[in-house]
Design brief:
The chain has 413 residues and is an alpha/beta fold. Helices cover 20% and strands 23% of the residues. The chain has an 8-stranded mixed beta sheet with strand order 2-19-1-3-4-5-6-9. A 7-stranded mixed beta sheet has the order 10-11-14-15-16-17-18, covered by helices on one side. A 4-stranded antiparallel beta sheet has the order 8-7-12-13, with no helix packed on it. A hairpin with a 7-residue loop joins strand 3 and strand 4. Helix 6 packs parallel to helix 7. The termini are far apart.
Length: 413
C-alpha cells in the first residue's frame, strides 16, 4: 500500500474528511471531479460483491432510536392512520400534532414542493447507567426560508440541538430554506448558551465541494444552451458566503464521511451502473463560469444513512436523481447490513420518461429490500409512484406527510 492510499484509508477509518470551517469568508477547497463512480473490481450483484472494509459506512455506530420529523414535504395528511403493518417491530408513526382541534387551522403545517427532515438519534452511553446521548442533524431545508421557519415554529422543535445541516444536492427545493434554518438554529443555540452559561457549539453546514449556485432546464432540447433557451431555477442556491454570514461554519465534502460521533453517514459519489435505466434529468443544466452546461446527472447528490441497533440501516435519499435502485445497491455494495427503512423522495414523477420506468423501478426495489423493510416516500415520488409502491409493498409503505414524526427503535413498538 503506497503512502497516498494509506492516508486515505486512515481518514475513512477515522470517519472524517477535511473540512474548511470559517466565519464570513469562503476558503475554496481542493476539488475532485464529481464523475460517475465505478469500480470494475465489483460485480453488479451485491451478493457477489466483496464488501470494502475501508468504506466509512462500515464504521457507522449503532443507535438505539432514530426520530425523524418532516418539516417540509409536498403533502399534508394528519388524518390517515398508520400504513405500516403492526407485525413490523421497531417503528412508530406520529401524525402532525400541530393540527389538533385546540390550535385549529393556525396550527397546521404547510406543504410545498421540497423536503426537509430533522433526524435525531438517541443512544445509551453505558449499560444500566440510564444516561443517553443524542445527536441531531437537519437534512435539507425545503424551498423557502419563510416556510421552513413557519413549520419549525409550529412543530416546536428544539433547534438548539441541531449540530449539522446537510445539503443533499444543489436544487432550490432543498437549499432555499437554509437562509431561514441557519439563523433560526444559531439563534436557538445562542439563547441556550446564554441561559446555561456554556460555550456555544457552532452550527456546521455540510456542503458538496462543487458549490453550485445557478441551475435550470432547457426549454427546447434541440435549441442548445443559449441563455434564452434555459429556464433558470428561482431562486438560486444560497452561497457559502451567505450561510457563513448567517452564523454557519461551512464544511466542504465531496467524499463519504461520518458525523456526530459516527451516528450519521453522508455518502460520496454514488455508483450508477447497477440500474442504468435510472438516469437523471436529460434537459437539466448548470451555470459554470458564466455559461450554461448540460448536467443531467446532478452528480453531487448525496444520501444519508443511520444504523438502528437490531433493525438495520435507515437510508435517506432526498431526491434520488442517481436512481433509487442505484442508491440502494450503492449502500449494499459497501456493507452487508440490511436496509430496514427507506425514506425520502424517489423521483418517480415528471415527464421525459421518468414515470414510464415506475414498474421496473418498483420491481427492482423489491429485490433490494426485505419483507420487513419500511418504505416512506414523499416529495418528488409523485402520486403514480406512491400508488405503485403501495401496491407492491402492502403493509410496508406509507407516504410522507408534513409535520409527522417517524420513529425507528431497537426495541419493540
Amino acid at each position: 500500500m503506497n503512502g497516498r492510499i494509506f492516508r486515505l484509508h486512515i481518514k475513512l477509518l477515522l470517519g472524517s474528511m477535511p473540512a474548511a470551517a470559517f466565519t464570513g469568508r469562503v476558503i475554496r477547497p481542493m476539488m475532485t471531479s464529481p464523475q460517475r463512480y465505478f469500480c470494475s473490481a465489483m460485480a453488479n450483484s451485491p451478493s457477489t460483491t466483496q464488501v470494502p472494509s475501508f468504506s466509512a459506512l462500515n464504521h457507522l455506530q449503532p443507535v438505539d432510536e432514530l426520530k425523524v420529523t418532516v418539516i417540509v414535504d409536498n403533502e399534508v395528511d394528519s388524518m390517515s392512520t398508520r400504513g405500516i403493518m403492526e407485525g413490523i417491530d421497531g417503528f412508530q408513526y406520529l401524525p402532525n400534532k400541530s393540527s389538533s382541534a385546540a390550535s385549529g387551522a393556525a396550527g397546521l403545517c404547510r406543504a410545498a414542493h421540497g423536503l426537509s427532515l430533522l433526524l435525531t438519534t438517541t443512544t445509551a452511553t453505558a449499560a444500566g447507567s440510564g444516561k443517553k446521548e443524542t445527536h441531531s442533524i437537519l437534512l435539507d431545508a425545503g424551498p423557502t426560508p419563510e416556510l421552513w421557519k413557519e413549520n419549525a415554529d409550529k412543530l416546536n422543535l428544539d433547534l438548539a440541538q441541531v449540530e449539522v445541516a446537510v445539503l443533499s444536492h444543489y436544487h432550490y427545493d432543498h437549499s432555499g430554506g437554509l437562509t431561514g434554518a441557519v439563523p433560526a438554529i444559531v439563534e436557538a443555540q445562542q439563547r441556550q448558551q446564554r441561559n446555561a452559561n456554556q460555550p456555544m457549539r457552532p452550527l456546521q453546514v455540510d456542503l458538496h465541494s462543487s458549490g453550485i449556485i445557478a441551475r435550470g432546464r432547457l426549454q427546447d432540447k434541440d435549441a442548445g444552451l443559449k441563455d434564452d433557451n434555459v429556464i433558470p431555477h428561482i431562486p438560486n442556491n444560497p452561497s457559502a458566503h451567505e450561510l457563513a454570514n448567517l452564523g454557519a461554519q461551512i464544511s466542504w465534502n465531496d467524499q463519504e464521511h461520518l458525523l456526530c460521533d459516527k451516528s450519521f453517514y453522508v455518502s460520496g459519489p454514488i455508483r450508477r451502473d447497477f440500474a442504468t435505466y435510472e438516469t437523471g434529468i436529460p434537459n437539466h443544466a448548470t451555470r459554470k463560469d458564466g455559461h450554461w452546461t448540460l448536467d443531467p446527472d446532478i452528480a453531487e447528490e448525496r444520501y444519508v444513512v443511520c444504523w438502528v441497533k437490531h433493525r438495520g440501516l435507515v437510508l435517506f435519499s432526498s431526491c434520488s436523481h442517481a436512481g433509487i435502485n442505484n442508491i440502494c445497491r450503492d449502500v449494499q455494495a459497501k456493507t452487508r447490513s440490511s436496509i430496514f427503512g427507506l425514506m425520502g423522495g424517489l423521483h418517480l414523477a415528471g415527464a421525459g420518461g421518468v414515470e414510464d420506468r415506475i414498474p421496473r423501478t418498483v420491481a427492482d426495489l423489491k429485490t433490494c429490500l426485505s419483507p420487513k423493510s419500511i418504505v416512506l416516500a414523499g416529495h418528488c415520488t409523485g402520486w403514480r409512484g406512491k400508488a405503485a409502491l403501495a401496491a407492491s409493498f402492502p403493509g410496508q409503505f406509507q407516504p410522507l406527510a408534513v409535520g409527522a414524526t417517524y420513529i425507528f427503535s431497537s426495541t419493540s413498538s
